[in-house]
Amino acid sequence: MPVAQIRGINLHYDILGDRGPFVAIQPGGRRGGMSVRGLGEKIAEAGYRVVVYDRRNTGASDVLIEGDSENEVWAEDLYELLKSIDALPAYIGGSSSGCRLAMVLTLRRPEAVRGLLLWRVTGGAYAAKHLANQYYTSHVEAAQRGGMEAVCAMDHWREIIGNNPQSRDRLMAIEPQDFIARMKRWRHSFEAGSDHAVIGLSPEDLRSMTVPACIIPGNDRVHPRNPGQVAHRLMPNSEYHEVLTEDRADLDVAFEEWDAKEGLLAAIFIDFLRRHR
Question: What are the sequence ranges of the domains in the chain?
């Protein structure tokens, strides 16, 4: 994969397709870009250039923990990446945390976004508590318990180090108390917007996003149906589609079902892109 030097880090990315408008997509959680590559390939086959990439602190890209908000940092990284490859303005898509990233970028850089492809929108009290612990509190507790060695041993960082062994050196160079302070800042930013129906986005934020948007709700406790429905009601130029109609409590089961629906997901997005090209 090509590597772009963006804002002091190396981002690994790929462009699928060789013609048509640019589309950038990202997965949820802190997963690497490979998890949406299959979807990207399907969209690219319909005549689009799809950017898939590893966000900082994911996949093979560099580790650098800074700033007050993880999603704002990711959004600015994506803007600079697309700018560097002359891909602006672009359609921006994402699932879960990737969905939040896409909407944050639209708020911060509206001129850079042609439209939004949003699936598995996150919201609700369960999601707020679960994700604050998964993304931040568990990392704080690991550093408090065993310093940066314990952080490196966590499943996420162990995978990152496997993809890019230099990441271990970057993590071990951080003082544990500094790492804890940075994670607490990110957690504070996340929790500040966690009481909204769509985590991180106020009703006023959603109303202000006038770009065309295709919204597909989730079907589990972290991505219940309601946040997608609220986003659709408030975003003035959105359309709403349901892919999975049976609710799941188990995230792993939900992931498997979404993987099986990748073709339908791609078809909905391709139809949307063609109508708003």
Answer: 3-127+201-275, 135-190
For the full predicted model, state whether its pTM sits above 0.90: yes
In the β-sheet with 22-26, what is the strand arrangement from edge to edge?
3-6, 9-16, 49-53, 22-26, 90-95, 113-119, 213-216, 238-240
What the block records as the tokens of 194 is 């966690």
CATH code linked to domain 3-127+201-275:
3.40.50.1820
CA distance 97 to 103: 10
Phi, psi of 141 (to 5 degrees): -65, -35
Neighbours of 86 (CB within 10 A): 7
Take residue 108 and report the two structure tokens written for it: 């911060």
pLDDT digits (tens, 9 = 90+) for 149-185: 999 999 999 999 999 999 999 999 999 999 999 999 9
